[in-house]
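Session log. Operator J.P. requested a structure for one protein chain; no other inputs attached. Running the standard single-chain path with token output.
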Amino acid sequence: MGRRKKLINNTNIPQHTIESIARRLLPDIMAYYQSEEGQREFAEWKAEQERLKTSKDNNSGKSV
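Structure written below.
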């Protein structure tokens, strides 16, 4: 049996409140990312991240 990961809560919001909000939001977030629009936006975001990484990698070898 795996150990439960220690939660990090550096706010004055009680943990049970945070978990309650997360339980309410998660189904909507999952539905969005499973939708056609969510899949398209995620693919665009991933492509942008890859472009930024490639750009950073290409610029890191150049001396100023």
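Operator note: The chain is about 70% helix and 0% strand.
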